[in-house]
Structure formats: C-alpha cells, structure tokens
C-alpha cells in the first residue's frame, strides 16, 4: 500500500470526524429547536460538506444525525433517521458538480427528510402528516439552501469545486 493511499484514507477519516463533530456540536447547541414539528435543525447546514468531500461528508453527516438523534424526545424510533439520511444525502452528492442543479439536490434532500419526520411525528404523536411535512419542508429547504450556498462558496474560495 502506498503512502499516498494511506494519506487519502487518513484525510477521509479526519473529514468524516470533522463533519460529524460539526453536526453534533450544532445539533446539541441548538437542541431546543432541533426536534418535533417546528424544528429548525441548524446542524443541517453541514450537509453542504457533501459538496466538498462527497463520501466523507455523507458518512460524517449520517454519524452526526445518529448522535444528535440519541437525544430526540421521540425516543429510539428517531434512530432510524441516519438510515433515511443516506439516500437523501446521495441527492446532493450526485448533483454536486451540476452548477445550479445542486440546489435541486438540496430540495430533494429536504423532501426525503421531511417525509420521514412527518411519518415519525404522525406515528409517535399523532400529529397531522401534511402539516408536519410542510412545516419541516420549509425549514429543511432553507437550511439545505444555506448549507449548499455556504459550502459551494467555500469550495470556490479554496478551488475545490469543479462546477
């Protein structure tokens, strides 16, 4: 195994850790507004890491969601969230180099997450599905757009973006 390959693996592990730590930190700092129907989970802006570092960003976000959801008022059922995040984050990863279509990836992410949250809130708290879906979708869309915009600009500044 070459030294370059080992460095790549080490960098990827570090990026996963950084992404997860950012998500967890923001998740716990803003915990009071990170759950239930009126949630505005500030940590969601970290999904933008998937633009700069696709797979370490994806894995780090999934780990971050798991640890933040450990404190969910909904209980263990919310630990399914990281599983839902995988296909949702792939929407961003797949469209990351597509100029403005990256925002479509963020919107698809928001839709998938909003469906999951609305289902869980309906099952656990009997809250109306469509109302929860719309409320969460608005917040998720705003946070996805902000996260993508932020990390897209960071990528342009450091010369990381291909599009």
What is the count of helical runs?
6
The unreliable regions are: none
> Radius of gyration over alpha carbons?
16 Å
Average pLDDT, rounded to a whole number, is 91
Q: What's the number of domains? A: 1
Instruction: Assign the structural class, choosing from mainly alpha, mainly beta, alpha/beta, alpha+beta, or little secondary structure.
Output: mainly alpha
Share of helix among residues?
over 70%
Strand content: under 5%
**What's the total number of strands?**
0
How are helices and strands ordered from N to C?
Answer: HHHHHH
How far is the N terminus from the C terminus?
Answer: 32 Å
Rough outline: globular
Helix-strand layout with pairing:
Elements: H1 3-29, H2 49-52, H3 54-69, H4 81-95, H5 101-125, H6 129-158
Helix pairs in contact: 1-3, 3-4, 4-5, 5-6
Annotation keywords:
mainly alpha; 6 helices; 163 residues
How would you characterize the overall build of this protein?
The structure is a single chain. The chain is mainly α and 163 residues long. The protein has one domain. Helices cover 72% and strands 0% of the residues. The protein is built from six helices and no strands. It has helices at residues 3-29, 49-52, 54-69, 81-95, 101-125, 129-158. The chain is globular. The model has no long low-confidence stretch (mean pLDDT 91).
Short description:
The chain is an all-alpha fold and 163 residues long.
């Amino acid at each position: 195994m070459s030294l370059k390959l080992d460095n790549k693996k080490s960098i990827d592990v570090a990026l996963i850790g950084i992404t997860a730590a950012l998500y967890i930190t923001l998740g716990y700092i803003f915990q009071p507004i990170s759950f239930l129907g009126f949630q505005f989970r500030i940590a969601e802006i970290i999904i933008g890491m998937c633009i700069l570092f696709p797979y370490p960003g994806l894995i780090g976000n999934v780990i971050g969601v798991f640890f933040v959801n450990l404190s969910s008022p909904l209980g263990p059922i919310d630990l399914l969230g990281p599983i839902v995040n995988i296909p949702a984050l792939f929407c961003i990863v797949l469209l990351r180099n597509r100029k403005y279509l990256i925002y479509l990836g963020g919107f698809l992410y928001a839709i998938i997450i909003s469906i999951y949250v609305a289902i869980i809130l309906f099952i656990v708290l009997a809250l109306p599905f469509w109302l929860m879906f719309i409320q969460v979708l608005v917040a998720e869309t705003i946070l996805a757009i902000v996260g993508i915009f932020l990390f897209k600009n960071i990528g342009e500044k450091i010369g990381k973006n291909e599009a």
